[in-house]
Every structure is written in C-alpha cells, then in structure tokens.
Write the structure tokens for this entry.
Amino acid sequence: MKNRLLIVDDSVIMRRVLEKYARALGLEIVGTAANGRDALGLFDRHKPDLVSLDITMPLLDGLGCLKEIMDRRPETKVVIITALADRETGLAAMRLGAKGFIQKPFTEAQVRDEFAQVLGLAGGALVGD
Amino acid sequence: MLETELKAFIDVVIRYFSQVTGETVAMGVPYVKAQDPVLLDFTGVIGISGARRGCLCVTSPREMLQALAESLLGPDGRDEAAVADVVGEMANTIAGNAREAFGSAFMISVPVVLHGAPSDITIKLKPPVFVVPIQWRAWRSFLLIGLE
C-alpha cells in the first residue's frame, strides 16, 4: 500500500515541484493546499500518512497548522519544507512534533532522503513500496 | 545596512541559483538608488518586520522566470501561473534564507507578486535602497533591499 501525502505550500510552483518529486517516489498524493486552513480540511478528510508543510503561509501558517495536526492525529509524519533558515524555526517545529525538516531551495534527492527517513524506509527506498 | 549584511543576501542568491539550476550566477556590483527603482516584468515583494523594517524585492524579465520555472518543472513550467509564482518564491527563499544571518526576529511576509510596474502600489523600500544586479544566462534581474 502506498504512503499517502498531503502537500501544503502557498507557492504554486513549489506544490507542483513536490507533486512531481512525490510521484517519482511512488507516493499517493491525496491533496494539495495553499494555506494551513485549507490543509486542515483536507487533512480531516484524507488522514494522510505524511504531510509536507511550508511555514510562511496566509490564513494559518505552518506552525499553527502543525499544532492542529498533532492535536488531531499525533502519529502523522510531518516534514517542514521552508525557506526559513534560522535554528529557532527548526527547533520550534520539532518541539511541535515535526519529524523532518528540509530547507528551500531543495533538490529531489533531499526530498527523497528526508521522506524515506521519516517514513522509516531503509536506504531511501520509496518507489514500489 | 552593513556591508556584511549585504553580503549575506548575495551569498543566498548565489546558493539559490546553484541549487535550483545547477549553474553559477554572476552578481553585479551593488549600488544605492535614490529614486524608486525601475521594475521589470514581474516583481516578488517581501515585507520585513520585527528586528528590521522595510522590504526586499526581486524584479525579473519574463524570459528569465520562464527558464527558471522550466528548470524546476520541465516543459510543465511554461504556463503563466508558474512564471509569475517563481519570482515570489525566489524572493521568499532569499528573505527566508537570510534569517540564518539575521536571526528569527527578521520577520518576513508572504510574497506579493506584481505584474509590470503598477502605479497604484507603493513598495515600502526604506531608503537607502541597495540594488544588486543578478546575471543568469542572457538575462538580468535585480535584488532590491531597503531596510531601516
């Protein structure tokens, strides 16, 4: 059974890049959202295994969305994907329950390795799982 | 703005192009602009608040943004939505990455993307405005930074 991914980012191009990378990794994309509020609606409907979550977004930012996700389903694996490069932001996300962190700009290999690590898949193997 | 602060932004731009395109970018000599700078086809605007106040912009010709979008998405990156979005995401990434040097009190807004040079929008660049030319392939963009 494929791992199910929800992509949350206010950038159209980032959502599309992550969709492209995730498809190549064999993940099932259950939805994409441009802000934390819409993401929570999709999260409740689809209960994804994995969420890729931007931080700087309108309406509800990534850290607020992360807290809501952890309150609802703490077993969800959340990977923060953000341009914010300061240490405090990464630590705040980890304290709230994020399992991974990728700094923008990122490469396909960084996304593959982080998703595999967070999902507990050895050797970065995702395709065909 | 201090010279070391300006260098932090320049380093971030160099890293951005290296990571996204796998190519090197040539950064021009920064200069200070007294009047409102000229805006190109698309401009990504990030408001700065917190420890510093002002604005950061990236203004680019359409062809450069289209090439960048294609670097990320291949032929699927040719549409108008991708081209307009990439300049906002570039500005967001530059401002966000700059927090490594400026710290978490350097607060950034979500990006706003301007098409052309709209007369009814004022960009809150705090003078003096530093202009940094960015030469990538055949195109030239500009990074504009105006901080208190």
